[in-house]
Write a sequence for this structure.
């Protein structure tokens, strides 16, 4: 079975092509610059212009089936497509086959994630036109967090805002937190429903999840991905009075202040002339004062959330870091986890600095640590693939679906 997974933003598509049931990536790639001159990492043809997601997806499909450099024979049809969708609102507690109602619901949730749900929807429509008569599946970032209780998702705001507009905490990066928790359970040697974990997704977006007995019970992101810890260009938790003050003082509209909180805040807003989070961390290593400040702010806020979630969980089996920026994350983990012996958390600095932390699943705690510490490269596309295959094959069991191949993969990769 050939499955294509798509992760789309306003000007980009990341794809992975799998052969299932043993989920083997046949090719992956990334297109950026939709609507202008594109850049991509799977062919040297960056001079072309792709006007929209339809053109970009058409280009990807023609590449996959190209007689010279493609990876698929014309006799091997793509049988299902898995689409990452950022916001599913209260409606979707698990992945679903896409129909007209699902597309409408994705559109209705756009107000809460306009920079993501709209391109997600555009890519779905393009894919359904280019690849008709096959299953298209939506995998929602928010679905994994449908298990958080009302005391966590209800904000202390007028309750009618929840009743009328569904203003509440939803949480994001669900596929990543699911994958990290399942792999951690394998390494702990017990079923995920007996594991209490803190999982930390570190990439362009950053979030922390408290997982009790395998279920999300708290998540740092909220109604939108802006809430939580400091991210690359999102502010995270701030005094909610600040936007109102700045709107008055700077004469900004609500749309302008929302753009500042989403796109012009976070680590990059503290630093000077940094391109992205990786650039911030590199300049911090070199001693740039503003970059050092930004990196310290990030680590301090991550550390605070860990303390909070230790209280939420009571018993914690492991803290799990993804490895979004590779070797430079070692210093982040060092700053976050240092001097936590009072919580029986002891980092092994030699293991933490191992180059194996980039691409392998690595245990980085000292032998005397009572809480395990792991670095596990996350694989959201693997979740997209397996949910899509299960739904296409009618073996998907809903929110408690536990038939992922990575639940049973060997731990030989653990260093």
């Amino acid at each position: 079975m050939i499955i294509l997974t798509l992760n789309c933003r306003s000007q980009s598509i990341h794809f992975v092509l799998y052969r299932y049931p043993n989920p083997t990536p046949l090719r992956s790639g990334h297109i950026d610059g939709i609507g202008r001159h594109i850049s991509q990492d799977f062919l040297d043809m960056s001079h072309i212009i792709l006007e929209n997601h339809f053109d970009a997806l058409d280009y990807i499909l023609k590449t996959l089936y190209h007689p010279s450099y493609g990876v698929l024979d014309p006799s091997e049809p793509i049988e299902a497509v898995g689409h990452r969708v950022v916001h599913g609102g209260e409606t979707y507690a698990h992945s679903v086959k896409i129909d007209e109602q699902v597309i409408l619901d994705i559109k209705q949730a756009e107000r809460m994630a306009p920079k993501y749900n709209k391109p997600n929807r555009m890519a779905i429509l393009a894919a359904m036109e280019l690849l008709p008569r096959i299953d298209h599946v939506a995998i929602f970032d928010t679905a994994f967090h449908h298990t958080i209780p009302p005391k966590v998702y209800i904000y202390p705001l007028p309750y009618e805002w929840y009743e009328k507009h569904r203003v509440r905490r939803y949480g994001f990066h669900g596929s990543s937190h699911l994958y990290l928790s399942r792999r951690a359970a394998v390494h702990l040697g017990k079923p995920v429903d007996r594991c209490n974990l803190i999982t930390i997704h570190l990439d362009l977006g950053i979030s922390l999840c408290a997982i009790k007995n395998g279920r999300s019970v708290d998540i740092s992101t909220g109604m939108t991905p802006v809430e939580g810890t400091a991210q690359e260009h999102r502010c995270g938790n701030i005094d909610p009075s600040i936007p109102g003050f700045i709107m008055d003082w700077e004469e900004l509209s609500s749309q302008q202040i929302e753009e500042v909180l989403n796109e012009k805040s976070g680590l990059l807003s503290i630093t000077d002339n940094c391109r992205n989070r990786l650039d911030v961390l590199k300049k911090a290593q070199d001693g740039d004062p503003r970059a050092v400040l930004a990196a310290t702010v990030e680590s301090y806020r991550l550390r605070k959330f860990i303390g909070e979630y230790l209280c939420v969980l009571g018993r914690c089996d492991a803290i799990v870091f993804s490895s979004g920026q590779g070797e430079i994350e070692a210093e982040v983990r060092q700053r976050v986890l240092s001097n936590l012996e009072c919580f029986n958390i002891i980092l092994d600095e030699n293991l933490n600095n191992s180059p194996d932390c980039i691409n392998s699943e690595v245990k980085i705690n000292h032998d005397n640590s009572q809480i395990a510490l792991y670095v596990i490269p996350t694989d959201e596309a693997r979740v997209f693939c397996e949910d899509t295959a299960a739904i296409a094959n009618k073996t998907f069991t809903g929110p408690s679906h536990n038939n992922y191949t990575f639940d049973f993969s060997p731990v030989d990769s653990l260093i």
